[in-house]
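Hello,

I think I submitted the nicotinamide-adenine-dinucleotide job twice by accident. Can you confirm which output corresponds to this input? Input:
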Amino acid sequence: MSGDQHQTSYPSVLLHIGGEWRAADSGRIGEVLNPATQDVIGYYAHAGILDLDLALAAAEHGFQSWKRVSAFERCRVMRRAAEILRQRCDQIATWMTIEQGKPIAEARAEVMAGADIIEWFAEEGRRSYGRVIPARVPAVRQLTVKEPVGVVVAFTPWNFPINQAVRKISAALAAGCSIVLKAPEETPAAPAELVRAFVDAGLPAGALNLVYGTPGEISNHLIASPVVRKISFTGSTAVGKQLAALAGVHMKRATMELGGHTPVVVLRDANVDAAARITAAAKFRNAGQVCVSPTRFLIEEPVYDRFVDTFHQATKSVKVGSGLEPETTMGPLANARRIEAIDGMVHDAIQSGAELVAGGQVVGNRGYFYEPTILSRVPTAARVMNEEPFGPVALMVPLPSLEAIIAEANRLNFGLASYAFTRSAAAVNRLTDEIAAGMLSVNHTGLALPEVPFGGINDSGNGTEGGADALEPYLNTKFVTHRSDA
Ligand code: NAD
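Support: Only one job matched these inputs. Its output is below.
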């Protein structure tokens, strides 16, 4: 699987349970489509309850062995997995583009970033330890010990087949937990190759298990199992709320990385042209199917026309096409549901009074392609101003002041990412204090590096999947107090 010889034929994707690659016990399979052609390109093994029970038993067993491996050795295994992933980058990226649609350069960047994330967590695992707490009397020692929570189950979506899974796998393994991953049925090959990198690096059987199937059946069965101690989900707010409720019923820890409706604040003192170019590139990355995609552009009136015009010019250079073509900068949407959702929201916005600056149409009649779309002066009541579009649509809104912009930014109950463009230190301070979001990126798009926090508040979920804090949800703190003069 070296870079020069990668295959464009798509693999059959198996389950990975207890150290073995295997078909579903029932023999059931599901189809995988190429979103650029709508052709069936392959199959994944579709797990049933029996397979899930095997995965739970394997994960319980895997936890017993992995937690006893020293943090030093765990780090070595994980670093090997990162290196294997880098070596196989071209093959994995090709399969990811075929199953998900994104441009091959974005797929390669995702695989390489996945390796960086594994390394970051590998090292953090070596640095997670307890404290000694000063006691009130000399004969007493008080200390805390960090222990892995146990078996984790994780559910990850199709927009970043590796990136969403690698954060959960890496944090769990670095902490000494075992994990059952339900990866996305629509894009199964890339996450399976991620799992293979860990397996080939020498992870003990059962420490990392992979299943595909019917999402609701899998989450109901796994979350209810007494074997499982923690869940982590990335996906829509609606599903996140269901799974968080289920986690609550069974008293399981839960990390939730959900939808957003990212505001982009553009103030009159900003470098407006740079802001437009930077955000246009970010908007159409992965065809806008990114939870931190810039969405509501809240622009101070004096610079509104200039910003929209420069953004429009930048959008003209977006090349829509098959992700395998090197000149493509925006591939198809990932599935038919997205086309229907985006087209419905765009037409509703136009009917509500928004002006169509660019796009607004399905492209061609084969594959799920949609034009990069800009809507101007979008009324607050339009559906797209309230629901996460999750597609290549930029919403432009002129506003009179920073106060009005902050009020609009905070109007929705989402609170994942936010961006701002300004040269005013006072405005940055005010946004830092007042914007209701888990992340604020000023004058650049600086989110999602392995070493920085990544997560939202309110309806965007809770917990962080990046930075030094991301390991904590996978650890229990045990308190030990010892009196030596008894
Ligand atoms: P969806 O809500 O049907 O599914 C979202 C993800 O959750 C998918 O990966 C799906 O397999 C999984 N899922 C669905 N029901 C589940 C269940 N009961 N148990 C476990 N997993 C379950 O939506 P969709 O049509 O696939 O995507 C559309 C919406 O999802 C978007 O509008 C966006 O809001 C959200 N989404 C968010 C992210 C993100 O990165 N936060 C990624 C993908 C999708």
